[in-house]
Amino acid sequence: MRENRPLDPAPEPLVPAQDLVNTWFGRLAGDAEEGLATPVDLARWCRAHGVDVADDGVTDADLDLALVVREGVRAALAPHNDSVQPQDAQALARLRDVAGELTLAVSLAAAQPALVPVGSGVRAMLARVLAGPVVAGDQTWRRLKVCRDCRCRTAFYDYSRNGSGVWCSMAACGAANKQKAFVERRRDRTIAARAARGA
Ligand SMILES: [Zn+2]
To answer: Is residue 90 part of a domain?
Structure first.
């Protein structure tokens, strides 16, 4: 079962990117935790974000494209956390390769200039995911992070005052990693003490 822990949503332009990344929860990864396992899953996800896509309107190629975008965004978020976070260069390269298929146009029709997806369906939804960081601006985008725990990698928005958050939640990954670090330090001290005694 997916762990239902409340995650504060990112500011509005980044919600599609955050939600797409979090269709897979690494912490509890297993096939059952893949939120985009079928084209129908993707159709539902698009509808949940206000883009009308019929269940039979999504192809396997659309699903592949969505997964490339998802993992590319996850990789792009890695440096926002800290230097400890590994960045998946291949996922970033794959995103770069497909980004040209996701077209956006500048619209001056409304009161505010806007980036609007060209086209419809899944591609329009994925174009919105990529428009989010541009609309949000660099300072906001930098606060969307992936959890430092490499088994988790949930996307969370860092609302901390100084922008130093590294865990998706202190209660879950933060506490678990502190406990792990404590056990490792104690083990290292025990090994060192034994070595000193010549045991
Ligand atoms: Zn986490």
So the answer is: yes
